[in-house]
Amino acid sequence: MSTHIAADSRPFAAQPWPPLGLNQASAGSRLQQAITAAQAQDRCALGMYLPVGYPNRLIGLDALHLLAQSADVIELGVPHHHADGLLDGSVIQQASRTALDAGFRIEDLFAAARELSSSSPAALVAMSYWQPVHAYGPLRFAAAASAAGIDAVLIPDLPIEEATPWLAAAWATGLGAIPLVSHRTQPDRLARTVAAATGMLYAAATDGATGNPQPVSPRLPGLITRIRNLTSLPVATGIGISTPAQARTAAIWADVVVVGSAVIRRMEANPRAQTAAAAAAGRDFAAALRPRTDQTTREATA
Fold first, then answer.
1. Is the predicted pLDDT of residue 300 greater than 50, yes or no?
2. SS3 (DSSP) at 48
């Protein structure tokens, strides 16, 4: 395989073995609709992440409903033990532990998705490490997620070489299978990963774990260009998007900007008004992604 494939403008052909012949764009159709609607407004879509069950079921679900008022995409995190969360910084690690201590079970993910999908136009993406999906059963997990209204699933620690069982389950149930890639992903491996993706790609915005204080990586534009040379699927970016200004910067290149640790930090800082803090975070990041002409008009009329 050519090591120069990322510079080739032709899309890389999808692997021929998906069981139902589902094409890349048809999986997670509501996700596609949410992104298209944002593009029609001349803006990048906003994704907001929160672990399901954080800080407990009731407050967490209220916070998700409020985030969905500002976000185009809600990323439902599956709480996990620290050893599984290789990309998670301390904020999400602690939030996961809090949710687990409050009694989170995998069925809570599907219950939250059912309620959100019936009450909000926001697309739903589940983010889970492989161990919980493997323990539940890939096909069982995919079927339950799809039935609950989840549009796509991101499994950041599942390498393409080991992903066949999950990809088959996702394709069979109409779920988008979103891989995570970074600037370190080699060209041939990037091509294989992109070819197997459905729904969307997820590009790391920084070099560290979630919630890190680093600026948006100067390598992000090049990474997204490499991805776009291989596929017409939309590209999301996240990991380290901590401020509205960073979100606005990343939005120059991406189709979706995902924010997570910043929401949790605000909830932690306001223990007596956690849902209100989440809602305020959603509004602030949504405002940062409005078209600049819209922002200018709002400032002029304020």
1. no
2. strand
pTM (2 d.p.): 0.86
pLDDT at 198 over 90: yes
Catalytic pick among 8, 42, 62, 75 = 75
Q: Confirm whether 107 is a catalytic residue.
A: no
Question: Among positive and negative, which fits the CA dihedral 88, 99, 198, 168?
Answer: positive
- Average pLDDT across the chain, whole number: 86
Which has the closest alpha carbon to 133: 116, 150, 114? 150
CB-based contact 7:229 (threshold 8 Å) = yes
Which of 72, 88, 151, 255 is the catalytic position? 88
Q: Give the other-Cβ count within 10 Å of 20's Cβ.
A: 11
| 150, 141 contact by CB (below 8 A) | no
Query: Which residues are registered as beta bridge partners of 49?
Result: 75
Assign 184 to helix, strand or coil. Answer: coil
- Helix 138-148 vs helix 164-173: angle between axes, to the nearest 10 degrees? 30
Asked about 88 being catalytic, the answer comes back as yes
Beta-carbon contacts of residue 283 (< 8 Å; ≥ 6 apart)? 70
Confirm if 206 and 239 have CB atoms less than 8 A apart. Answer: yes
